[in-house]
Amino acid sequence: MNLTFYGHAAFQVVIKGKKILFDPFITGNPLAEGKVDPNTLEADYIFLSHGHGDHIGDAVSIAKRTGATVVAVYEIFVWLQQQGIQNAHPMNTGGKWTFDFGTVKAVVAQHSSSFPDGSYAGNPVGFVFKTDEGNFYYSGDTAVTLDMQLIPDWVTPDFAVLPIGDNLTMGPEDAVAVARMVKTKTVVGVHYDTFGFIKLDKESARSTFTKAGIDLKLPAVGETIKL
Ligand code: NI
Ligand code: MN
Fold first, then answer.
1. What's the whole-model pTM score?
2. CATH of the domain at 78
3. Which residues does the chain have with pLDDT short of 50?
4. Which of 167, 213, 211, 220 minimizes the C-alpha distance to 189?
5. Which ligand is nearest to the CA of 113?
6. Does residue 225 fall inside a structural domain?
């Protein structure tokens, strides 16, 4: 499976030819400026983990331009409709749905969620993907939580996309604990360096993962990696 990183927690995977975009925050990310153009990103689906501005980002404009189906919790689904998005799909924690590329389950994330104007955006979630081309887990912004132990009861992810920037989410040590709980050996680290609060010591992070026997991928902004 190919994964392209667009900075912060924004990335795309392609499954069965479908372009699936996650948390597309590009405009306003200084690290993505000049490297990613939100006006040319393609998407068949956009998955939103929660309502914070650094995740909702450019989702509305990309969805309007591409006609992508936007998948998010019910409260964000309602908000998307108010923004004029016709193709939205509501999910909520614990539920799963089979799309044309595979089945997705929404899972617990320990974080907060509000829209950029401060209004209520429901609970944050992560997503577990089970597909013929591979399985993976995107946790969204979260702390480590024991609920994650339940994920491999449904599917064992080939890789997990996890925040590692600390302070606003878990950091590298806890991300290792998550990788162990979900029984994956490969982690794509996201949600670091974008703001002052989440500067990552990459060497230290790499050594934390290496000591645990887990492969940490830190793709550059705009880079595509094969997983
Ligand atoms: Ni957040
Ligand atoms: Mn965030």
1. 0.98
2. 3.60.15.10
3. none
4. 220
5. 1
6. no
**11-15/2-5 β-pairing:** antiparallel
Among the bound ligands, name the one nearest to the CA of residue 116.
1
From the CA of 175, how far away is ligand 2's center (Å)? 15
The number of folded domains in the chain is 1
Ligand 2 center–CA 54 separation, angstroms: 5
Residue 26's domain comprises: 2-220
Has residue 198 been placed in a domain? Answer: yes
> What is the Cα–Cα distance from 78 to 26, expressed in whole angstroms?
23
Cα–ligand 1 centroid distance for 201 (angstroms): 21
Question: Residue 226 falls within a domain, yes or no?
Answer: no
Give Cα 151 distance to the centre of its chain.
16
Chain segment 5-31, per-residue pLDDT in tens: 999 999 999 999 999 999 999 999 999
